[in-house]
Amino acid sequence: MATADTSSAHGGDHAREVSFYAAKTGLKSWLVTLDHKRLGMMYLVGTMVFFLVGGIAALTLRTELLTPEQDLVSATTYNKLFTIHGAVMVFLVIIPSVPGALGNFLLPLMLGAKDVAFPRLNLLSFWIYSLGAVFFLITLVNGSLDTGWTFYTPYSTSSGTAVVTATFGAFILGFSSILTGLNFIVTVHKMRAPGLTWNRLPLFVWAIYSTAVIQILATPVLAITLMLLMIERTLNIGIFDPAMGGDPVLYQHFFWFYSHPAVYIMILPGFGIISELIAVHSRKHIFGYKAIALSSIAIAIISFLVWGHHMFVSGQSELAGVVFSFLTFAVAVPTAIKVFSWVATLYKGSIEFNTPMLYALAFLFTFTIGGLTGIFLGALSVDVHLHDTYFVVAHFHYVMMGGTIIAFIGGIHHWWGKMTGRMFNEAHGRWGCLLVFIGFNMTFFNQFIVGQQGMPRRYATYVPQFQQQHVLSTIGSYILGLGLLWTAFYLLRSLKTGAQASDNPYAGASLEWQTQSPPIEHNFHGQPRVDTDPYNFPQIDRSGGMDHH
Amino acid sequence: MLSMFLAPETKEAAKAAVGNVAAAAPPAPPAPKLPPLETLHSWAMPTQASTFAESTDNLYLFIVFLDAFFFVLILAAMGYFMWKYKRRSPDQKTSSITHNGKIEFLWSAIPAVLLVVIFAWAEIDFIKQTTPPADAIDIRVTGRQWFWQVDYPDYPGVSLTSSTEEPLITMIVPKGRPVRLIMTSEDVLHSFYVPAFRVKKDVVPGRYTTLWFEATRVGEFNIFCTEYCGDRHSSMAGVIKVLEPASFEAALREAAKLEQKPTESVADFGGRIYTRRGCNACHTLNGDPATGPTWKGLYGKSETLADGTTLTVDDNYIKESILQPQAKIVAGFTGANMPSYQGQLDDKQITAIIDFIKQQK
């Protein structure tokens, strides 16, 4: 069991200190704050605002797809909608979501530290993120973008839309990602509380750490690639456009060399959240701690060697295709290990079906489908048929939305009391989770069927026989949208009307639960010490729980 | 520094915005009505119409069953634990188990072995799909925004195209003979996809990609473009027709024939060329500017060129624009790269197009 206090432990409860929200006030206390908790909250607001923007684009394009003909919006507008949806969701929502919001807020708390290693760098990361976001907003009002979030050349070289503004935005966002990753790596190495050995790190920390490694190694490649694209467009130097002597397939290699590892930048933090949620809410020691921690590292390494599976039909060499296919199957094994370990954690537990746990269980359902359907796409001959069809759309939504976003929402609920000091209404939370779960599966499951029947993605119009499934998808997306709006509503409402959160509402054992809710400005009274790992729930519960120290 | 990036964009964006407003107003052209993707299996894959289809589908099914098995296994375990170990009292007893080396080894090793089997099966099929036999019939495919052009080197002068507005026979192949497509693009990336054949390959500007298949079923099947290529990406669809070898050549010559029919006026013939040779991909008849100027009211109109001079559109200017499209570009269309039709349209066909344009008042 971890103890958070040395100085006044024998003097009974110390007086409650003001929370970090109350410690300083005014606009300036937010805009130039060095406090990781405030930065985390600002990332949370930022990613949620863009989640709304991306979501509106998604619902508009789903509405267009109600009929096979083009009726609601023009083809050009449709193309802009799916591009904005993809680019905003990837670059402004999913990549910064868990590390930016929960990572910033929780990592120093879980380590028993006062802050991250470089608080000023952390502030810089946030403002770089905001600057990148501004470029995306300029893109939206300035001719928008119609290249797809992948910016494939030579279409992106010739498109009349704001390609340079958007790519410059993504270029800037990359630096935010790199600096955050760097900061987290140093923090994990240097700022752990006494006794908090690597084997005692919460798995969320392991996940954020593995993510940070990918962020600093892969993101520079994206930055260089986008810079080359900007050079090609503004200075007419042929790099990727064959009309100027360039090679479009080279662009795809560069792009996916970043963007495949980026898939793991997006999902690994989600894995970390799920490990925490399942262990805490089933009162069990996480099953196979070492396997889960090391599989994150294995995924981080192998993820650099599988980019070519996005290019099986691109014209890359067949031998390359074979090698990439094999390595792709290799990355499936550590992922499978995680899923099995989470399920095994439930065994002989004491499972409480509260909102965070329901999201974790929903994750096990949707992410497992996402993972298993990846096997079809890694298999060369089957991928030839399914590549760039709705099957791929369904697969990556099951991983990105059914994986990362579901985990993120679960995590927000789990740590909501810690972050805001208020509890949301449990019944409201369960209804929200049900709507999201039903809406999500209804939107995306039948897209596997549409895809295997041969419907290509990014189509504004389609063969009428697919209409029935598209209608079902669209209705599902409305339910999903409703569930998410409902969730935003009751969470925001809880800030005013929610019950006061106790310091440790779910009897968690990692260090973030050993301070006030919301935490005090310097996180802890005195230096926390750790003498056991954070998942010893059976022992903790038998010895009388966490709250009685 | 910002202005360096923004300035050219703003101009382009303004232009694009003007184009969009104009393009959004009238109803969009209907998508081509394509033959339905006939489905034979209850699990609803498209018709199996090539020699690759069966093995691809068998592997697909194998993965479906394997996935279903593991999914049910995982969910059953999860569901059972959820029911059995639901918290019934606050001090419910829990197990202090933390790991189990044996079971962890098993659930790593078993999936690994199964994945290697899937990899090998897919790899063997993939190598077959990428190794065309020596006696394959060569067909050249050219992707353009937004139509396919299909040429038969063995049959000089035979050329077929797709149309964004109607399902045209875009390619004819004999049943039971291997066919190799040598493909390239004249503008951006496209991807040639025939769901019924389970084949797909990107069509890349500046290089040739190849794809081969052997059709096993007589009929008409969809061709889709599966690499996003701009505004009318979803209308870049065609039809591939499979015939018995005996009737192949005659049908090919008949389909490729682009001659004035005895019952047809010159202008009507020009109208057929307008859709058959892809003019409609960039030139509208309803007054909207698209990639190129609209043909409505074009003839006799005074146009301002990109270099500032003006001219009146007449027979000679139209002919010159068909044969040397880059010679005199109308202001506002400098970015459009119309390909030359030199050697692809004869004088009679060009005359017919001019007559057709005259009709578009």
Q: What share of residues are in beta strands of chain B? A: 15-25%
Order of helices and strands of chain A: HHHHHHHHHHHHHHEHHEH
CATH class of the domain at 137-256 in chain B: Mainly Beta
Q: Nearest-angstrom radius of gyration of chain A? A: 23 Å
Q: How many angstroms separate the termini of chain B?
A: 48 Å
Structural class of chain A: mainly alpha
Specify the structural class of chain B. alpha+beta
Average residue pLDDT of chain B:
85
Strand fraction band of chain A? under 5%
CATH homologous superfamily annotation of chain A: Cytochrome c oxidase-like, subunit I domain
Runs of chain A in which pLDDT lies below 50 for 5 or more consecutive residues are: 1-12
> What's the shape of chain A?
globular
Largest interface: A-B, 111 and 105 residues
The name CATH uses for the topology of the domain at 137-256 in chain B is Immunoglobulin-like
Description:
Chain A is mostly helical. Chain A has one domain: Cytochrome C Oxidase, Chain A (Up-down Bundle). Chain A has 17 helices and two strands. The N terminus of chain A is likely disordered. With 361 residues, chain B is α+β, with helices and mostly antiparallel strands. Among the domains of chain B are: 120 residues, Cupredoxins -  blue copper proteins (Immunoglobulin-like); 94 residues, Cytochrome c-like domain (Cytochrome Bc1 Complex, Chain D, domain 2, Orthogonal Bundle). Chain B is 36% helix and 18% strand. Chain B starts with a helix and ends with a helix. At the A-B interface, α4, α7, α9, α10 and α11 of A face α1, α2, α3, β7 and β9 of B.
